[in-house]
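User: If only I could read backbone structure tokens as easily as an amino acid sequence. Underneath my words sits a plain record pairing an amino acid chain with its backbone structure tokens. This is the protein in question:
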Amino acid sequence: MFLLLPFIVLIDVKDFAQTQGSTIPPLCQKGYFPCGNLTQCLPRAFHCDGVDDCGNGADEENCGDTSGWATIFGTVLGNVNNVTLTQECFLNQYPQHCDCKETELECVNAGLQSVPVISTNVTLLSLKKNKIHSLPDKVFTKYKELKKIFLQHNCLRHISRKAFFGLYNLQILYLNHNCITTLRPGVFKDLHQLTWLILDDNPITRISQRLFTGLNSLFFLSMVNNYLEALPSQMCTQMPQLNWMDLEGNRIKYLTNSTFLSCDALTVLFLPRNQIDFVPEKTFSSLKNLGELDLSSNMIMELPVHLFKDLKLLQKLNLSSNPLLYLHKNQFGSLKQLQSLDLERIEIPNINTGIFQPMRNLSHIYFKNFRYCSYAPHVRICMPSTDGISSFEDLLANNILRIFVWVIAFITCFGNLSVIGMRSFIKAENTTHAMSIKILCCADCLMGVYLFFIGFFDIKYRGQYQKYALLWMESLPCRLMGFLAMLSTEVSVLLLTFLTLEKFLVIVFPFSNIRPGKRQTLVILICIWTVGFLIAVIPFWSEDYFGNFYGKNGVCFPLYYDQTEDIGSRGYSLGIFLGVNLLAFLIIVFSYITMFCSIQKTALQTAEVRNHIGKEVAVANRFFFIVFSDAICWIPVFVVKILSLLRVEIPGTITSWIVIFFLPVNSALNPILYTLTTSFFKDKLKQLLHKHRRKSIFKIKKKSLSTSIVWTDDSSSVKLGVLNKITLGDSIMKPVS
């Protein structure tokens, strides 16, 4: 079985290449996949959703990323550890603490300090979890029929050069989880039939080409979590049949053009979690049959443009978690058979559709950011599938966002417009303050307009967002919406700060005549709008520095929290949210603490003083709740920004909650706090209601009196009714002195 497996895999690879080379190009539009026979196309959301949408089950196939040979080898690798033993024992001699079934012996955790003496017809020997620290010369020489040896977890330190002498039939050798630091060249020279060699979790620091002498049939070599710092030149020379090499978790710092020159049969190569910082252009040129390559979690900053040119059969490539600075446009141009590409945790500043377009067979792709998926719309499965805001199908990823964006938009616009109307209709004693409130409502109303546009474009792109995601985020409407949201938030913050400072001066210094007049207030309000406009418009001035500042997500709001975003955009966003807004928030908090301390002191003063500032205290109490709602909105933003500076990974769903729920909440609540809860408004509303009630009563009584005149026959009664009507009218219209 093990001898045939390499040839089976190689035949499958070549057959796959031949069949895929003649496949018909996909006829489905971007963002859709075919139902097997290409006669029907469905959105990517229907793939592996548990429902047979195609009718032939094609949409429920290939649900996992099974590209490469991980599943095949994983199954075989798992089986070799599980020794399947029958009931009868054919061994005459073995230690009493061991279990024997047929010709297989298992001595696990038996306290052995050396290889025991057993019958020579043994075929499998498991000595796991004992205390065997060394293997002397010819310790297994009598056991010519041995096919499998398991020596894990023994803390083996020394293995003699002739320890495996004479084991010509050995196929599997496990030496992992030991304390081996060096292996002498030629130690495996008699293991001509060995197909599996496992050396994981040993402190081996160096290997040479001659170490593998004799391993003519070796199929699988695993040296995971060793201390290797370099690989020998042409390391596969003594292993012509090597198909799988796993060198994960070592300290390999470099590769050369000659490292894999003799590895013609290599199909799977794992090199993740090493310290490789550069890969020469010809490193993999001899690996014509390579089907899976893993270079993840290294220190690679640059990939030569033609590094993968000769890997025509490559199906799975993992480059994730490398500090790559740049991907060439033709980086993957030769990978026509590639099915899975992993670029997680990699920022791609020059990303464009041309990088991924040549890989027509690509079915799985993994990115750092969801927005990158818009550059590979032909790929069936793209991860992450959402950024917490948008998904492949919809601009707003879930029903909660879709519903609340309209609800909050309506409440925000209706509430603020109502306040503007009522403030204009009901004349206030303090006209300067009323003007400031109306201007603030205008700024908050812009947030509602922004949310209405988000809801509109969500409906427009419903079910096909991924097809237009890139165009949308780079479009002028998206940038204008981002500008509108930024203008609204900044003007609102600055206005609240101004109104707080105004109340601070009145309450803390009640007799000082430093409160701004109407003209000064108007100048301040114009300055606030000018500053807010400049803050929102600056990112348009230099696209080279700021990039697409407002087009990093579907809702076009620049809440940057990733360390690898554009330096200009991230720095500017931090300056606004942790600079301007945080400073304004701290000023507001300090002002209100000082105001309440001042109120506490004035409570002990005379009634005249209390009356002098009584109205201002009421206003300050109302504004406290306004600021409190503002704090609820901004504290999550501050926390996200601080966590991003501490390099804490933040879930993408946070952005959606902040943009749809937290940021607009004060814009929606402020109308209630500005006007509807004020004592002045309550009094005016009571007067209007009372006046309306009096008019209603008068009309009712007038109608009843008129009716009594029509139905009275006695003339005296008519006169009496008229007199009563006049008297009632006089009493209603004229106050009694």
Notes: The domain at 5-73 is CATH 4.10.400.10 (Low-density Lipoprotein Receptor). The chain is about 40% helix and 5% strand. Residues 1-27, 70-83, 707-737 have pLDDT under 50 and may be disordered.
